[in-house]
Amino acid sequence: AEESFHSVKVPKDELSGGLIAAGFDEKSCLSRYQSASYRKKVLHRPSSYLISRLRRYEALHKRCGPYTDSYNKTVEQLKSGHRPASSHCNYLVWISFSGLGNRILTLCSAFLYALLTDRVLLVDPGVDMVDLFCEPFPEVSWFLPTDFPLKSQFDSFSQESPHCYGKLLKNSTSNNSKGLMSQSFVYLHLVHDYDDHDKLFFCDEDQTFLHKVPWLIMKTDNYFVPSLFLIPSFEKELGNLFPKKETVFHFLGRYLLHPTNPVWGLITRYYNAYLAKADERVGIQIRVFDTGTGPFQHVLDQILSCTMKENLLPEIDRLLPMTSQSGTHISKAVLITSLGSGYFEKVRDMYWEYPTVTGEIIGVYQPSHEEYQQTEKQMHNQKAWAEMYLLSLTEVLVTSSWSTFGYVAQGLGGLKPWILYKPENRTAPDPPCRQAMSMEPCFHAPPFYDCKAKRGTDTGALVPHVTHCEDMSWGLKLV
Ligand code: GDP
Prior knowledge:
Blueprint: H1 4-7, H2 31-38, H3 48-64, H4 69-80, E1 91-94, H5 100-117, E2 120-123, H6 129-132, H7 165-171, H8 177-181, E3 185-190, H9 204-210, E4 215-220, H10 225-228, H11 232-241, H12 248-256, H13 261-275, E5 280-285, H14 297-309, E6 331-337, H15 342-353, E7 361-365, H16 378-392, E8 396-400, H17 404-413, E9 418-420, E10 433-435, E11 449-450, E12 455-456, E13 466-468, E14 476-478
Parallel strand pairs: 1-2, 1-4, 3-4, 5-6, 5-8, 6-7, 8-9
Antiparallel strand pairs: 9-10, 11-12, 13-14
Helix pairs in contact: 5-12, 5-17, 12-17, 13-16, 16-17
The structure holds guanosine-5'-diphosphate.
């Protein structure tokens, strides 16, 4: 069966159920074509409307993308500082910001917003985006050219910037709303520390205004898709794109995010060496937000009690360490990802030192232990991306609360993970975990505002498909 990973030929138009366009150079991005053979079951099919909208977006991107006539013209207008009477192409610029898991979620959020508002998404390459992701659109790049006029300002954009949407609103009175109307670009601050004015982005009235701005520059570290579902003017289109609401990130992630060849090498070599031969793969993603260096006994206890209570991994027999191995001989490969190696060593040793009560054979593997979160180091984030992807290739997944790293794995894999509750006061919570309601990521910093009534409201209680998250009571997720 292993051989088939490389020899299976999937008809091109069938790739990911039609998500992927034809017309790419196959060798430049092998993952685009080979990933289908690593993802065994197709559990969800994209709607034909989503597919047709993606093809329409690709045509728009080709017409308006970097260095096209339309792009050059719109950039000239931006340089002159005046808003044109009309522009043929409007843009959304995504600023590279925050950890890799966060960036993957915000890229998908930004793309969906671009799709809903007929904008062209341009991606700030930051330090490592080009090393991590293939081009998702045929022919014309999604990367923002290095000579883009506002590029040197990206780092300094903040809530205090004169072009910040929230700031513009604060400074505008009914008399000088003209100032607001003449902006050639607007900076959208959707970072977790954003204020009530910035949050008005999620109101229809504000969307009507923003619609006329040719350049929107966005900085965010949040998966803001759930709140797009609460904007009335987007409702119908979103329903057509995603009849099954919990598949938004699943499809957008699989459409946009293809590991580059070096990252695909990390993924496939690891998978084929350690995971392919097992009967079942169990992923455990460990992210500890506590201060101090682990491993912590309470976290290990929590992982073991979750996996055993939920029958994800077998118990061990501490009394009869010499039993002849009877029972089933099913083999399970456990893929652990974590910044440290402590938990991995404990679990691996446990299944080496004692037999399982079921006779199952358990192999435990961890690709890397990078010790601490690093930025600006090429291989560090390539490994992080490879590990999120490897977790998405498991059949059973356990994730840590609050971690976007885990959200990416569950969404790409189409998996409803068991989420380890966040420990409080260094004790393992009881119950230790629960299964997620849906495979969608959680929006950690949603607005709680009723745009029509102009007062606070519980945005997790307005419609059945947008509800509070399992791992963060104030967060919002699609179910
Ligand atoms: P979050 O902080 O858990 O929401 O995830 P992010 O991906 O946004 O930021 C955490 C960063 O720390 C990642 O991008 C990695 O650089 C690093 N990191 C965290 N956990 C792991 C892990 O298990 N493996 C590797 N290789 N890197 C990790």
